[in-house]
Amino acid sequence: MKTKITVLCENSVIAPFPLIGEHGFSCLIESGGDATLFDTGQGFGLMHNMKALGMRSDHVRRIILSHGHYDHTGGLIPFLTSRKDKTSVYVHPDAFHHRCKVIQLPAGTIETPIGMSASRSDYENAGAEFIPVQGFVLITESIAAISEVARPADWKTWDTVLKRKINGVIEDDPFNDDLSLLIRTESGPVVLLGCAHAGIVEILNDLSEKTGHREFHAVIGGTHLANAPEDYVGLAMDTLKAYRVRIVAVSHCTGLKMACRFAAEFKNEFANASVGGEFEF
């Protein structure tokens, strides 16, 4: 049974007009008549691009959200309201926390909200039936999700401007809700990342530890390496090679400069996971 992954929202567009790009991520996973939507982008491109590609929202059986940032959840309400039936939405409970970006400037501090744009009740009124995902969870026979990724005790995000606010107190975001997918395909296990805030190295290592996989056929999605220190970037490249990844398809928060580096490093094994891109396994 073939599995097809189609990128619906991303910063760049691989196919010509009328598809549009946006800062965000979303893709559709199809296998044997079953369809799963992973993330919903920022909210401008999802429904437009689905229509342009001849896709119907009623065909989707479930939604999985990678984390609670606006550029992965902004299209949720438009998608929900386009359907007649309730929709199962798999998400880590921490995704509903208030997220913000805090930037220090000479004139003062700027705090910008970057979390989900609506309340949980608003999403439920629009048709969402939330199902909590914590740890390693099998969602379908072929799709597993991992959150609360195992990390070293001294782990810290390198993107220190990304925060969460709990009871009015701003603190470093531990990104426990950062959720990635492991998809069983005919070609082998495929890893699908949202932003990899928990660290691409840590995600792959934890998946390997929990499943016994020593190889991954493909890794697709955002790697969040644009601001990463050089030693971690090198470790990420080495880790992908150690797991003998045959397709490295980066997108979104990877950043253009880092995507070029991936292309130089992996050559024919590299691909852009841009809007309109299709991957079949």
Question: Describe it for me?
Answer:
With 281 residues, the chain is of the alpha/beta class. It has one domain (3-280): Ribonuclease Z/Hydroxyacylglutathione hydrolase-like (Metallo-beta-lactamase, Chain A, 4-Layer Sandwich), CATH 3.60.15. The protein is 21% helix and 32% strand. The protein has seven helices and 18 strands. The strands form three sheets. The protein has a seven-stranded mixed β-sheet with strand order 8-5-4-3-2-1-18. The model has no long low-confidence stretch (mean pLDDT 96).
Biggest sheet character: 7 strands, mixed
Query: What is the overall number of helices?
Result: 7
Q: What is the H/E string?
A: EEEHEHHEEEHEEEEEEEHEHEHEE
Q: Which CATH first-tier class would you pick?
A: Alpha Beta
Which percent range describes the beta-strand content?
25-35%
Distance from N terminus to C terminus (CA atoms, Å) equals: 9 Å
Q: Structurally, how many domains make up the residues?
A: 1
Record the strand order, biggest sheet.
8-5-4-3-2-1-18
- Report the average pLDDT across residues: 96
CATH topology descriptor: Metallo-beta-lactamase, Chain A
CATH architecture classification name = 4-Layer Sandwich
Which structural category fits the helices and strands? alpha/beta
Low-confidence stretches: none
Overall body shape = globular
How much is the radius of gyration in Å? 18 Å
**Number of DSSP strands?**
18
